[in-house]
C-alpha cells in the first residue's frame, strides 16, 4: 500500500511540475520546430515519455533538467522523422503573408539564431531563453560542461558577427 501511495504522490508532483512549466516546454519545443501544432505534439510526447519513466528518475531534484532533456531529444527526433519541404503557390503564400503578424521583438536576433548551427543555437536558447545553468545544459545535451562553455562562447561570437553583418546592410 505504501508503494502505491508513493507512486501516486510522485505522479501528482510530476503533473504539478508539468503544469507549472508547460509554457517553457512549449517555447523550447517551438524553438526547434517553428510550428505551433508540432510544438504541442512534441510537448505531449515528452509528457507521455516522462510519465512512463518518472519512477526511474533517481535524483528528483534534477526533475527540470531531466524533463528539458526529454523535450530536446523528442524535438530532435521529431525533426529527423519529419524532414519535409512544402512548396507553396505564390497566391497562398501572399494570403498567409498578408494576415501574418510578427510577434518577435527582434527579428534580426531570431533570424541570426535560426542561422546558427544547431549545436550552438540549442545551447544559447537553453542558457539565455530558458535560463538554465551550464551544468544543467551539459546534463540535457549529454556533454561535458567545458564543451558547453566553449560552444556557448563560440555561438555567441557567431551570433554577434551575424548581427553586426545584418546591421551593416
Automatic annotation (TrEMBL):
Record keywords, A-Z: Sigma factor, Transcription, Transcription regulation
Single GO MF descriptor: sigma factor activity
Listed GO biological process terms: DNA-templated transcription initiation
Domain RNA polymerase sigma factor 70 region 4 type: 109-159
Residue span, RNA polymerase sigma-70 region domain: 17-84
Keyword Cell membrane: no
Transmembrane segment boundaries: none
Pfam families: Sigma70_r2 (PF04542), Sigma70_r4_2 (PF08281)
Similarity field: Belongs to the sigma-70 factor family. ECF subfamily.
Name this polypeptide is given: RNA polymerase sigma (SigV) subunit
Gene: sigV_4
Amino acid at each position: 500500500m505504501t508503494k502505491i501511495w508513493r507512486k501516486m504522490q510522485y505522479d501528482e508532483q510530476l503533473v504539478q511540475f508539468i503544469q507549472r512549466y508547460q509554457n517553457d516546454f512549449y517555447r523550447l519545443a517551438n524553438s526547434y520546430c517553428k510550428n505551433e501544432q508540432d510544438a504541442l505534439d512534441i510537448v505531449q510526447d515528452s509528457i507521455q515519455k516522462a510519465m512512463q519513466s518518472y519512477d526511474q528518475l533517481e535524483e528528483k531534484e534534477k526533475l527540470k533538467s531531466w524533463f528539458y532533456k526529454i523535450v530536446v531529444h523528442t524535438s530532435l527526433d521529431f525533426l529527423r522523422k519529419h524532414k519535409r519541404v512544402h512548396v507553396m503557390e505564390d497566391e497562398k503564400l501572399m494570403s498567409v503573408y498578408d494576415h501574418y503578424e510578427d510577434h518577435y521583438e527582434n527579428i534580426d536576433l531570431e533570424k541570426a539564431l535560426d542561422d546558427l548551427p544547431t549545436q550552438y543555437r540549442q545551447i544559447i536558447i537553453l542558457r539565455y531563453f530558458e535560463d538554465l545553468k551550464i551544468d544543467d545544459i551539459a546534463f540535457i545535451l549529454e556533454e561535458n560542461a567545458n564543451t558547453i562553455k566553449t560552444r556557448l562562447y563560440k555561438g555567441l561570437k557567431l551570433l554577434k558577427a551575424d548581427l553586426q553583418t545584418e546591421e551593416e546592410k
